[in-house]
Write a structure and sequence with these properties.
The chain has 180 residues and is mainly alpha-helical. The protein has a domain of 104 residues: Orthogonal Bundle (Arc Repressor Mutant, subunit A), CATH 1.10.10. 45% of the residues lie in helices and 11% in strands. The chain has seven helices and three strands. It has a three-stranded antiparallel beta sheet. Strand 2 and strand 3 form a beta hairpin. Helix 2 crosses helix 6 and helix 3 packs across helix 4. The protein is globular and about 75 Å long.
């Protein structure tokens, strides 16, 4: 299956997020983390992600006569390349955005449903702003953002680290009227 098709599904994106940071999880743990998704769907999407080269089986052990597998993201997993993104249609981009938003909403709801969720203490943010930028200013901002986030994305779980979902969304706003 094409990486674009694999990743443009809300359940598969949630599984990818759940395994980020080098985490290992069993299908059962993923089902517990996503109680709103039927178990059969979680298993089906795990199979698709594994068959598509996104996941690998990190461990297997016998539990009550059955084999329990722990999954992790493959370091060499396929991604949606910039070249592939240029071939996407407007409807493909709509689907990708809708999938990303569905994951974001599900993850935010799961966070708020935790017994001790504290959006203020956890520095939760969901602000929007309009920036008026030249192409050069946009490039500088994006380069700075990548330079800031890329080394942090390599962090692995640790005793003093909490996972934070970051979801930058950037697109041109309304076109200003042209001077006549």
């Amino acid at each position: 299956m094409d990486p674009t098709e694999l990743l443009l599904h809300p359940v598969r994106l949630r599984i990818i997020h759940a395994l980020s940071g080098g985490r290992l999880r069993t299908a059962g743990e993923l089902c517990e983390r996503m109680p709103d998704i039927p178990r059969t769907s979680v298993y089906r999407h795990l199979g698709l992600l594994a068959d598509g080269g996104m996941l690998e089986i990190a461990d297997e052990r016998r539990v009550r006569g059955a084999v329990e597998r722990s999954y992790r993201l493959r370091p060499d997993r396929p991604t949606i390349t910039p070249e592939a993104a240029t071939t996407m249609t407007p409807d493909d981009h709509r689907q990708a955005f809708a999938a990303a938003m569905a994951v974001l909403i599900s993850e935010f709801n799961a966070y708020l449903d935790r017994p001790h969720a504290d959006p203020v203490a956890d520095s939760v943010g969901y602000r929007q702003a309009t920036l008026w930028l030249t192409p050069e200013e946009l490039d500088t901002m994006l380069t700075g953002f990548r330079d800031l986030v890329t080394p942090l994305a390599a962090n692995t779980p640790g005793a003093d680290r909490k996972p934070y979902l970051i979801s930058p969304i950037l697109f041109p706003g309304e076109e200003p009227p042209t001077a006549t």
